[in-house]
Design a protein that fits this description.
- It is a single chain.
- By secondary structure, the chain is an alpha+beta fold.
- 14% of the residues lie in helices and 31% in strands.
- It has one helix and four strands, in the order αββββ.
- Strands 3-2-1-4 form a four-stranded antiparallel sheet.
Length: 72
Amino acid sequence: MYFISSNVMKKLHDKYPAGTKVRLVRMDDQNAPPIGTLGIVSHIDSVGTIHVDWENGSKLGVVYLEDCCEVV
C-alpha cells in the first residue's frame, strides 16, 4: 500500500467529485469494462481509488497511478 498526500487527494476530489461522468481510458484488470465505457463517479476512497458505476454494471474502481479515466 502507498501513501497519498492530502494535496493529491484534494486534486482528485476537485477533478472527480461524486456525480462526474467519466470515460475509461485504461484499466489493468481482466474484469475491466471495455475501454471507452462511460460511468458516473460514486466516490474516491482514502487511497485515491476513483469508484465508478460503469454503464455496463461494473463497479470496478480506477486505481490511482495504475488505471486512467477522463472526465466527459
